[in-house]
Design brief:
The chain is mainly α. It has one domain. It is built from 11 helices and no strands. The two termini are 23 Å apart.
């Protein structure tokens, strides 16, 4: 795996460039961007919140429509904001106009990553509904298996999604890099999953107007966590080169 990540004859897998160059404090830098990049963050947050509002109207209760709406509407909208956070952490400019372009250009790559956890989540919802209807014990195992696969694919996707949006590489490459980084640096990945879980919980309990304040900071937290994880993975692959 490490040989695959460090290079191939025709195409190098850019683990060495999978995020901003070793910023000593990516979280601190992300916090500093909250004010200076407020217009872009607010623009992206409004788009994400509107997408969630549509899903919430169409499916007030958790179900198939909710999962499809998250995977095909909300996450792609958030992915453009996440890409913006990743670019900003490298020191490059990413304003509202760039965000608008990214909403279109990042849709297909985002769905290519989210389709796996989305499908496993749909199967888990179907298994849960079947268990409530029939109450057979073996269905609990199906629910547990579906939930486990969903969580694992989501954890890998935490790294794979910003990597794919940044480098526009083959989807298989993004999944391989995501799996490599997530298995060696699980703490930042789990931190992102917890933050996403809190946002999903808040989305179901707060007003739409209040929800606008959350996506922007989450995008920067996610980008900072990916930066920290990929920096640590570089040191794992090339310990002498990062002394």
């Amino acid at each position: 795996m490490s040989a695959y990540l460090t290079g191939r004859p025709r195409h190098r897998v850019q683990v060495d460039d999978a995020g901003p160059r070793a910023d000593p404090d990516p979280v601190g830098r992300a916090a500093g961007l909250l004010w200076t990049e407020l217009p872009m963050l607010l623009t992206g947050s409004v788009v994400v919140t509107l997408g969630w509002a549509v899903v919430r109207v169409l499916s007030p209760q958790l179900g198939v429509v909710t999962v499809l709406g998250l995977g095909l509407v909300v996450v792609p909208a958030f992915a453009a904001l996440l890409h913006g956070g990743t670019v900003l952490l490298t020191g490059e400019h990413f304003g509202p106009r760039a965000l608008t372009r990214s909403l279109w250009t990042s849709y297909r790559p985002t769905v290519a990553v989210t389709v796996v956890p989305m499908l496993t989540a749909l199967l888990t919802v179907a298994a849960t509904n079947a268990w409530f209807l029939h109450r057979q014990g073996w269905m609990l195992a199906s629910m547990a298996a579906g939930l486990a696969v969903t969580l694992v694919s989501a954890a890998v996707g935490v790294i794979a999604l910003p990597y794919l949006l940044r480098f526009r590489c083959p989807v298989r490459e993004a999944w391989l890099v995501g799996g490599f980084v997530a298995t060696r640096q699980p703490v930042p990945v789990l931190a992102v999953l917890c933050a996403v879980g809190l946002l999903v919980w808040a989305a179901g309990h707060v007003s739409i107007a209040l929800l606008i304040i959350f996506p922007g900071p989450l995008a920067l937290i996610w980008a900072a966590a990916v930066t920290a994880a990929t920096d640590a993975s570089r040191r794992h692959l090339d310990p002498q080169g990062h002394r």
